[in-house]
Amino acid sequence: xxxxxxxxxxxxxxxxxxxxxxxxxxxxxxxxxxxxxxxxxxxxxxxxxxxxxxxxxxxxxxxxxxxxxxxxxxxxxxxxxxxxxxxxxxxxxxxxxxxxxxxxxxxxxxxxxxxxxxxxxxxxxxxxxxxxxxxxxxxxxxxxxxxxxxxxxxxxxxxxxxxxxxxxxxxxxxxxxxxxxxxxxxxxxxxxxxxxxxxxxxxxxxxxxxxxxxxxxxxxxxxxxxxxxxxxxxxxxxxxxxxxxxxxxxxxxxxxxxxxxxxxxxxxxxxxxxxxxxxxxxxxxxxxxxxxxxxxxxxxxxxxxxxxxxxxxxxxxxxxxxxxxxxxxxxxxxxxxxxxxxxxxxxxxxxxxxxxxxxxxxxxxxxxxxxxxxxxxxxxxxxxxxxxxxxxxxxxxxxxxxxxxxxxxxxxxxxxxxxxxxxxxxxxxxxxxxxxxxxx
Length: 440
Hints:
By secondary structure, the chain is mainly α. The chain contains 17 helices and two strands.
């Protein structure tokens, strides 16, 4: 980190402002949906982009103070964003507002990843984790209320305070809860990232209140069936696999990993004995079974979700306009402004959407950049794992797919990708020799 940011009280105050602004971004990400559904439903539309002006301000402040790094990835992303904006205006859908909404992903949210990565230190990263572990307790209670309440109940109101009787179909007559988020995607993304911190603190065995750690463990386990989300289940499983890899690199974690397994097993057994959670578990398995059958089993599910989009992104590139249909056309906002209703004007899967919007050249370039940056972070995290630092590795278990293949068309998903990617980069900045001296 540049030493000049510590010179003088004004520089220190601005650096503190950047951190406070990032914390505000975090809380807006968590509670944006609550504002749009319950507290300020009349402002649901403008609140959709409430984090963008804040992120833009923090980017400009970082750039003015020389904190924003001038990396190859950042330059390429900005170039693609600017080019995509103008090609959308002159060659694509020709709608200024749709182009602006689409370009903000590459010109605001992605640069903000590097701001977080530069200004956050180890203590900041762990404090975010503690905050998420605290929030997950009432969040689980909330999704439990949404799970068992009718769609006409206040807790299940849609954006703008609208009573949405349709909801997002789950199983056995239940709908997938959205928690404090605008859509159900926020639920599994929140608990998926929180699970990384949960396992980190169990393996470290220090730095957090054990009552909070135990309570949040129960909350996350209960949240899996209550969310009726297979994605959350897979995300937690991936984090557990990463944790086992960490255990093989450091034998001291082995006993703690067994402790996690015992506590998790006992929690599942105890919860399944209660009528409340036994029904939620039955609903989750019904959703899992029905969807897996429709998709051809677990192999088909994983193939469609993680490999299918890779293939589909390449299959129709020769039939696309060279610069695509225009950035932003694949978002719900773009669909609303261009077609008058929410829907999918291009392919729904992320890589297919990127190529459809930007065209073969820019679209594939952005995909390759995302993959290469993800692999670079993965390589550095694996190296840090063998140096005794498991935090980057566990954050990678969630952040890798979000950065490489996460849905950037949906604002909540984009926000979690921005946050997780920034945290991964920030976790790699702490020198290995100082890790042991870092307090929580």
